[in-house]
Structures are given as structure tokens and as C-alpha cells.
Amino acid sequence: MTTPAKVRLGDRVFAGLSTGSGVLILLVLAGVALFLVVESLPVLTADPSELPGERTFWSYLGPLVFGTLVAALLALLFAVPLSIGIALFISHYAPRRLARSLGYVIDLLAAIPSVIYGLWGALVLAPYLVPTYRWLAENAGWIPLFAGPASSTGRTILTAGLVLSVMILPIMSAINREVFLQTPKLHEEASLALGATRWEMIRMTVLPYGRSGIVSGAMLGLGRALGETIAVLLVLSASGAVTVNLISQSNPSTIPANIAAQFPEATGITVNLLIASGLVLFVITFAVNFAARAILARRSEFDGAAG
Amino acid sequence: MPGPITTAALVGLVAVVLTYVVTRIRSGRRRATDRTVTVIVALAFLLALLPLTSLLWTVLSRGTGRLDLDFFALTMRNIVGEGGGARHAILGTLIVTGLASLISVPVGLLTSIYLVEYGRGRLARAVTFLVDVMTGIPSIVAGLFAYAFFVIFFGPGIRFGLGGAVALSVLMTPVVVRASEEMLKLVPAELREASYALGVPKWRTILKVVLPVAAAGIATGTTLAIARVIGETAPLLLIAGYASSLNLDPLEGRMATLPVYAFYSFTQPGVPPQAGIDRAWTAALVLILIVLLLNLAARLISRMFAPKGMR
What we know:
Number of helices of chain A: 10
CATH class of the largest domain in chain A: Mainly Alpha
Largest sheet of chain A: none
Largest interface: A-B, 95 and 97 residues
Low-confidence stretches of chain B: none
Largest sheet of chain B: none
Strand content of chain B: under 5%
CATH topology of the largest domain in chain B: MetI-like fold
Number of strands of chain B: 0
CATH architecture of the largest domain in chain B: Orthogonal Bundle
Number of domains of chain B: 2
Helix content of chain A: over 70%
CATH architecture of the largest domain in chain A: Orthogonal Bundle
Order of helices and strands of chain A: HHHHHHHHHH
Radius of gyration of chain B: 25 Å
Mean pLDDT of chain B: 89
Oligomer: heterodimer
Radius of gyration of chain A: 24 Å
Number of domains of chain A: 2
CATH superfamily of the largest domain in chain A: MetI-like
Distance between the termini of chain B: 53 Å
């Protein structure tokens, strides 16, 4: 008992350091919002005549928000069913021994840098899709989505959506896999014992149990798709048009792709304009991620209560 | 003329329909639905493998063309068309990512120690939750944040390597926190209690008992976090910029990095353009090799240094 003061000092320093790091993370998150707001203020207070193109901020932002949402929703449209299929395959269909390695293979998709997805999308996938788009424009042109004329490069918003869907597949299938595996074994066995086939068992126990997990996984994927920059920038040939035509030459741009395209050469108020659009993107993705994580957190609390 | 993907799609569709019709006739509706779903689920998995194989194959076949010594020995200084290399970009990536790790690993590790060993109550819950939310921050927003932060001190148009490292660490820290937190939670409470019972203070218990047990897992998680940010392009495009010659000073001037190099080699390939596009594919190949090596290293670390009886 000769050195109680020393002991307490070490503990206090260490506890202070680690608590400080935790607080630092909160500060950084607040700082991201704060500094973006500070740099955006000149745009919000500026007269439209001072802004590039003499447009108000909101009319500048509108087409970009539209493009961002279209690309991200297209990505979800392809990725949701596919990720449920992949997750079911790994959790309930594949042989137990293979399942782990198959999971790694899907995770490999997440390890590939987005600039490489961009190169692949622009130089391999887009040219490959040109005949398909031409066919769609000729045979399904009466649907406004495929009105055409088909793009000759294939670098359309639909191609961007397809590339995005591949990029968000890993996180969505990982979360779906996780919640499917959490289904209580007793429910599954009870269902099988009552004579259900494997699909009926999945439909009646696994899917209802995993529903909130599927929703939050889809929202996490949505957050990724909304914020993806370089892949979209490389794949999409954007003209800033607001159109529902998915396969033509003129495509809306997205907020992040627009920032990355303009920022390197931007000066003056244009920089603030781009930062302001980034702030809007931050708010949207923050809200989406917040909601997704809140659903997941409530789900795990509920599980804890149920034992 | 149908391409390979169209053919594959048709074959898949035929397989699904055939499965349904045949089992429907032989064993009834319920079994037919069951079989059909099995086929669909397996096809969904195979479908996901298509882009992966196509992408890896393309990068491998088109990237090896320029995978020569020059690519690692030369920069793009005074190069317009053929030749040139990515020495400046590779070194830049190592510097920026290394600095980002120097910031993220201590902060992330200490935060995870706080969450597991000290954190109670509302602050800890807020940190846990917001770390999760932070993993979803778009990378471009991290770049904008670094710019908006440094522009206050250095004025408009600021571009430098350290800024890129700060942007990357915003993306990397939450990943480190999550990974180390999981590992610290796995350390059995009995080890801590045994240490306390011997009169060892809490901070020494953490340093001498908890961390060594979790070290392999933490190293694995950190390596994976590095692998995740080393391929980031968007934030570096904004704040680190691009230079065609070598710059080893992260505090001064634009610094090229490998992903940004790949990006500009494709968008501004020079004359003749094919040389630039070839360089872009080779940069992509080198990048994928780095990422895969890091992933492999992570797996090796966790296998070789795992404490006995933990796995």
C-alpha cells in the first residue's frame, strides 16, 4: 500500500486517453457537419446572379438529387432480390463446409476499389450492354423508361445502376446472411417437422424473422449507393438532364460524381457550391444510415430480451 | 447474335422453367415450388460471380501489358504518350495510407478500449452507435471535410498529402474501432478478474493482459481497414490532387496516389490514348494485388498468432 497515488495516476491517464478518443470521434463527426456548413454558407446567402449559370442553389441541386436517387434506387432494385438469394444460398442451401468459403468469395467483391469498378463498367460492361439497349429501344420503346434513342456508348444511368448494385451486394448479403442464420433453430425444426418443404420453412420462419434485417441491410446498401463517386463518374456520361429515360445519351448526373468531376478545376464560389451539394449528400446518407442502424440496434435489443 | 451473358441468362431461365414443369408433373405443386426456389437461389449466387470473374479477368489480362520494371521505376514527368510509370503514385499511396494509419490506429484502438473496458451509460452508447453510422459516410464527403477544414488555415485551393491522410482516417477509424472492439470483447472476463485479484491496476491489466490476448485479432482488423482505404479515390482526388512527378513531402504540394493515377490515366490518357488506358489497367492490377496481399496477410496474422485455445 505504498504506491496508491501512482496507481491511481496511471489509471486516470489511461482512462482519460481512451475516453478522450471516444469523444474525439464524436467531435470529428460533428466537425464534418460543422465545417461543411461553414463552407456552404456563402452559397446559401449569395445572390443567384453570383452563382455559376445564374441559377439558385436549389435549382442547381434538383437535377443532381434526382440523378442520385435514380441511380441508387436502380441499384437497390437489382441488389435486394439478388442479395436475399445469395444469403439464403449461403445460410440454408450450400453444404455447411462450403458456406464459409462462399461467403469469402462474395466479400471479395467488397475489397475491390471503386475506381476499378469504374474502369470495368466503362470499358467492359457498357460496350457489352449497347446491343441490349438498342434492342430495348426498338422493342420496348413504348415504355418511357426505354424510350431511347439508345446510347451508342452504353454509358447510361442504367449501366451505372448495375455497377452500383454489384458494389453494394456484399454488404447487403452479409447482413441478410447474418439475420437468416439467427433464425431460432426450434422454429425451423418445428416447421420442417410439420411437413413443410425447405422453401415453405424459409417463407414461414426465416424470412419473417429476418424482415427487419433485410430492410436495414437494404438501407445500408442504399447509403453506399447514394455516396458512391468514382465508379459512377467513370461509367456515366452525364449531361445533367432530368429524364426517366434510362438508356439514352442524356443522363442526369449524381451529387458525388458531379463534385468529383468539377472540384479539381473549381475556384471561388463554385467550390462552396460543390461543398454545399456535398453537405446535402451528407445529410441524406446520414439519415439513411441512422435509420438503418436504429432498426438493427432495436432488433438486437429485442433479441436480447427474448433470450 | 447473343453474347455469353445473354446465353447464360437464357440457359438459367430454361433451367428454372424445366425444373418447375418436370417436378410439377412428377411430385406435385409444393415440391415443384421447393425445387424451383432451390434452382433460383443457386443461380442468384452464380449470377453474383459473373461480374467478379469478368472484372478480375479483365484486370488481369489487360493489366499485365505494362506490368514491367519501368512501371515501378519511372514517374509521369515529361511523359505524354507511351512509356512512363507509377513510381510517384505508388510511393504517394504508401505515404498517405501510412499517415492515415498512424492517425486511425491509436485513436481507433483507444476508442475500442474505452467502449469495452470503461464505457458505461449514454456516452458509450452514443459512441457505439455513431461509429456505426460513421462507417456509412460517403468517401467524397470525407474529402470535402478535409478540404473545408484545411482551407481555413491554408486558404483556397489547398492540396497536400497530409490532407488526404486526414480524409482517409475519417473513413478508417470507425473500421478499426469496430474490429478491435469485437476482439477485446472476446477476451475472457476471467483473465481480467485473475489480474485484478493479484492486485494489478486496471490500466496495467489492459496493457499486459487484455491487449496481448487480443493482439492478433486487432492486427488482422487493422490490416483489413488499411486494405479498405488504400483503394479510395474520391477523397484523394479532392484534397491530395494529382501530380505527374515525384513528391515525397506530405506537408507541401500535390501528391499522386495509385487510385487517382488510375483515374487520370483513363480520363486524360494523353496521345496516343491507348498508352494511358494501358497504364490505367496496370495501375488497377497493382492496386488489386496490394489489396489482395493485405487481405491474405490479415488472414495469415490471425491464423499464426491466434492464442492457443481461442479458436
